[in-house]
Every structure is written in C-alpha cells, then in structure tokens.
Specification:
By secondary structure, the protein is of the alpha/beta class. It has one domain: Rossmann fold. Helices cover 45% and strands 14% of the residues. It contains eight helices and seven strands; from the N terminus they run βαβαβαβαβαβαβαα. It has a seven-stranded parallel sheet with strand order 3-2-1-4-5-6-7, sandwiched between helices. Helix 2 links the parallel strand 2 and strand 3. It is globular and about 55 Å long. The relative contact order is 0.15.
C-alpha cells in the first residue's frame, strides 16, 4: 500500500533540488529533467549549476548556501515564481517537489572529537533542511499538494564507526521526515526520506575503506524515482545492502555492538 501519492508522470512539474551540484542531487535532477520536469537546481557552486543548465535545456539554476536561512528564503521566492503565470495565478500542479540533497561528511571518531566539524555537519545536513522546509511549506499547505523529500542515509539507522559527526544528523533527518509525514500526509502533501547505502560521490571519495555494494549516482537516481512512482515513504537502496543494515539495527544493543565491531574490525 503506497504511503504517498504516486508520482510517475513528471512532465511539466516544478521540482526544486537544493544540493544538486554533484552526486545524488545532480543525478536526480538530470533524471527528472529527462522525464519532462521543470527542474531548478541549487547549491553554492555557481559554475557547477551553470554547467548543469547548459546541458539540460529549460532547467534553471539558483545559487544559494543552504545554511543561510535568508538566502534560502530568497531562493525559494525565485523558484516559486516559476510556478506562477504572468498574472500571478497558481497553476494546478504548483510546486511538485522540494528535495533536500545537500550534505557534508568527514569521518570522525570520539578520540578525534572536533566541535567545529560537528557543528558544520549539523548546519549543512540538518539545519539546511529546516531552512528549505520553512521556505516552501506554506506554499505546499496552500496547494494541498506537492512532495517534500529529504536525503538521509543508512548511517542514520544506528551508530556506526567513523560516523560521529555524520550519523546523528542523518538520524535527525529520518525522525524529522517521519514526524512531517504524520502531520502532512492527511493534508495531501507527500513526504519521503531517502536512505542510500554507499554511493560514488565527492562525499564518499575520501573513504579509505572498501565500500560494500557501491553504486553510481545515476543508479541512485533511478531508485529514487522508482520510489516516488511507488508512493514509498522510505526509499532505501541498494536493497542487498540496506536490508542487511535494517536487520542489524533491530538487534539488541549488545549483539549490535558486537556485530559492528566484528564487521569493521574496530
């Protein structure tokens, strides 16, 4: 049973992806464009966004720092203006999708605790998502339609080694999405949380360990759109890896810690 309205036709739908200069965000924006969506990509890297627009005719770029609340609000005004006709009338579809893809990752263990780095993770990975929600939620509520999607991670399921800074922010996004769903689903607004395993992106490029079931951003994008077509709340992939982590996360604390230590050698 689908938990969200199914989205299998993106033609003409306005989609804003914040954090779309590289990786999963860029690949998903490209996949949506290929399916006829009106795509708006945002990030701090103006050149990367210009390069995207150059090869995706009809798409739009709005440069913004997700950690700057006022800047995100101003960017949202530009995006939402694309969904209005010259007379200011709201089209039937309005804003179809707002996706938060921005992310920051640096491996950290407690023995190398770095408060500044911890707070940077919080600002980019979690607070930026709040800025996006603050900017678009009033419009979605007025529409009584549209979809909010947050890119989290399987690292948010339970604590993992080297994930002291990253994991807690992703756990927060999972909880945030669950609560948003409870509040918004009856108002006609879809909410989803995307929990990828290892994806070949600039964020994971610095990992010094072998990443199991590593996939490309393009494969990740296909999973994301398939999840939207299925009306899924949680979109996790690749399932040969994420199902194992899900099962592991349900173990008792003692068994979980033992299993993780055995698997990682830590």
């Amino acid at each position: 049973m689908p938990l969200n309205p199914r989205i299998d036709d993106w033609s003409g739908r306005l989609c804003w992806l914040l954090g779309a200069s590289t990786g999963i965000g860029r690949a998903t924006a490209s996949a949506l464009h290929a399916r006829g969506a009106t795509v708006v990509v945002s990030a701090r890297n103006a050149q990367a966004l210009a390069d995207f627009v150059a090869v995706h005719p009809g798409s739009h770029a709005v440069v913004v720092d997700a950690s700057d609340r006022a800047a995100v609000a101003a960017a949202a005004a530009q995006v939402l203006a694309l969904g209005m006709d010259p007379h200011g009338a709201k089209p039937p579809a309005g804003l179809a999708l707002a996706m938060y893809c921005a992310g920051h990752y640096k491996a950290m263990r407690a023995t190398d605790f770095d408060l500044a780095e911890m707070l940077k993770h919080q600002q980019v990975n979690y607070v930026g998502a709040l800025h996006l929600i603050d900017a678009v939620l009033p419009t979605l509520l007025r529409q009584g339609s549209g979809h909010l999607s947050l890119v989290s991670s399987v690292a948010g399921y339970r604590g993992l080694p080297h994930s002291l800074a990253y994991g807690p922010t992703k756990a927060a996004l999972i909880n945030l999405a669950q609560t948003l769903y409870l509040d918004l689903s009856e108002r006609g607004i879809g909410v989803s949380v995307i929990n990828p395993g290892f994806v070949e992106t600039p964020l994971t490029a610095g990992n010094e360990f072998k990443m199991p079931a590593l996939i490309t951003p393009e494969v990740a994008a296909r999973h994301i759109l398939a999840g939207g077509a299925g009306g899924d709340f949680e979109i996790h992939f690749p399932k040969r890896f994420t199902r194992w982590l899900k099962a592991l996360s349900h173990l008792s604390d003692a068994l979980y810690f033992k299993a993780v230590r055995r698997a990682t050698g830590l």
